[in-house]
Design goal:
The protein is 76% helix and 2% strand. With 516 residues, the protein is mainly alpha-helical. A two-stranded antiparallel sheet has the order 1-2. The two termini are 24 Å apart.
């Protein structure tokens, strides 16, 4: 809720959050684009270990915002928690700046980043919601623009940090190349914090009730102590593969049990909505398994089996660095977002706006086509390397699927889940997303390439076999989603009859999982 009537324009308040979010995403994606490759090339990890360590880190990155949101709402305030999270993130990237090849030091730095992300992400999004609270006509547009901040920041950093790594490495040594690239991520957060300090007055009227009160020393001490403890817990999990597996699979079992318990104990009128939510959450988990391939198997595929040269009709245009292909996701989202906005608006005017379940089916179909593109490109491979344009089209279809699917998870919780369960279900959704990130890394390891294999002709069929299987998995998910359409329509109608008799949940959005 807003603390008082805004003394400044909503646009200025929004711009303040938009800019620090852009710099935060600059830092995060600049780090992510290099991390798996760094673990393999500098720390000597095999691809299986590198994938699983990053998968565990990604899982924790998705789970910790559930804690950070609570801290912002109840303990020290939304604004303070967001700023503290940005500071902690900057420290995490600064630790990666230190030129050491000690794996334990990496785990510690990732632990700091995990905690900082958990503090920053939910509170930045909450501030945008609070700025436009009660103004439904503007909030959709605000989040569309806010989602662009994610992609602007990531586009810049995923292009820049691999280039910095190569340039500095060539002139000053490989060690400084890697660590300077990570250092640029810390500088991005420093610039974001400096800009926030100059503009923060525009947010004085926005925040949780805790923002309007002096910070209680007891609360602040507890938050800092808990954050330090969580850093070491995260580092311990990253260091121990067995512990990570137990945590992930254990969380999955607990989540299913709680879902089952809620459904069995819920009122008959609420059951239809909960079953619909469970079906869509499971589909979302499968989607994020596909998503995790970008930083794992697709990244390593680009290292070994992609011609880095872009050309048109025999004319060479430019070369890309392998990690920069991950940037295609953000580029396609920027290109496709306005197209989908136009399509949805047109269908809405015609009274044919597709249901959430239908969008899931379309999204999985696009993902399946995207993964089949790599197999198609392999048919025309030269010396084991596919054309760079294969990556462009593969990422293009995948990104279309992301826009159709990934923004729907939180929206469907707001639509289907009873209000008294809303808070738990939001946390459950993030836990499910975290589980799927780790499972995505497990899936990526089906394309394990032994260290002594350097011939692209040998590694190409290993990767294509995985991508073909993912394509067929996408087809299966599409078929299931289509088969579920009548049931989902019935469940939605049953839920709508009940929902019409009570106050609906407010719309819920996430800058990370938003659709036009």
């Amino acid at each position: 809720m807003a603390i008082q009537n805004p003394p400044v324009s909503q646009t200025r308040s929004f711009s303040t959050v938009f800019l620090i979010e852009m710099w935060e995403r600059f830092g995060f994606y600049g780090m992510q684009v290099l991390m798996v490759t760094y673990m393999m090339k500098k720390l000597g990890f095999v691809d299986i270990k590198a994938n699983l360590v990053w998968g565990a880190a990604a899982a924790l990155i998705y789970v910790t915002p559930a804690i950070g949101g609570w801290v912002g709402d109840r303990l020290i305030g939304t604004r303070r928690t967001m700023r503290l999270g940005a500071i902690v993130l900057m420290l995490g990237y600064a630790l990666l700046w230190i030129p050491t090849d000690n794996a334990n030091f990496l785990y510690l730095a990732l632990g700091v980043i995990i905690v900082g992300n958990g503090m920053f992400k939910p509170n930045a999004g909450n501030l945008v919601r609070k700025i436009y609270e009660g103004d439904d006509t503007k909030i959709d547009s605000a989040f569309t623009i806010y989602y662009m901040a994610v992609n602007i920041g990531s586009m810049i950093s995923m292009t820049l940090t691999p280039w910095i790594r190569d340039y500095v490495g060539e002139h000053y040594g490989d060690d400084w190349g890697w660590h300077t690239a990570f250092g640029v991520c810390a500088i991005g957060l420093l610039l974001g914090l400096a800009n926030y300090a100059l503009m923060s007055r525009a947010l004085k009227h926005v925040g949780s009730p805790a923002d309007g009160q002096p910070v209680r020393l007891k609360n602040l001490t507890g938050v800092l102590g808990g954050a330090i403890a969580l850093v070491f817990v995260s580092a311990f999990i990253l260091h121990n593969e067995l512990v990570a597996r137990i945590c992930v699979y254990g969380a999955g079992v607990v989540l299913l049990y709680i879902f089952g318990h809620l459904i069995s104990r819920s009122h008959r009128d609420e059951r239809a909505g909960l079953i619909a939510a469970l079906v869509l959450v499971i589909q979302t988990i499968f989607f994020f398994i596909f998503y995790q391939q970008m930083s794992t198997s697709l990244n390593l595929f680009a290292q070994k089996n992609v011609d880095l040269s872009f050309g048109v009709f025999g004319f060479h245009l430019f070369n890309w660095i392998p990690e920069q292909f991950q940037n295609l996701n953000a580029i396609w989202i920027v290109v496709l977002s306005p197209v989908l906005v136009f399509a949805y608006n047109t269908l809405g005017r015609l009274g044919k706006d597709p249901s959430i379940a239908a969008k899931f089916a379309w999204g999985f179909a696009a993902v399946a086509i995207g993964y089949f593109m790599y197999g198609l490109g392999a048919r025309f491979a030269v010396a084991g390397q596919v054309s760079s344009w294969t990556m462009v089209w593969g990422y293009g279809f995948y990104s279309l699927g992301e826009l159709l699917v990934s923004g729907l998870g939180l929206a469907m919780i707001a639509r289907y889940v009873p209000e008294r369960m809303g808070g738990f279900m939001m946390g459950a959704y993030y836990v499910a997303s975290g589980i799927s990130q780790y499972l995505g890394s497990v899936v990526a390891n089906f394309a394990h390439v032994p260290k002594d294999v350097t011939d692209p002709v040998v590694s190409l069929p290993i990767y294509i076999d995985l991508f073909d299987k993912l394509g067929f998995a996408g087809v299966v998910c599409t078929a299931i989603a289509l088969a579920m359409l009548p049931l989902m329509k019935k469940l939605s109608a049953s839920h709508a009859d009940v929902a019409s008799t009570r106050e609906p949940l407010p719309a819920v959005r996430s800058e990370e999982f938003d659709t036009p």
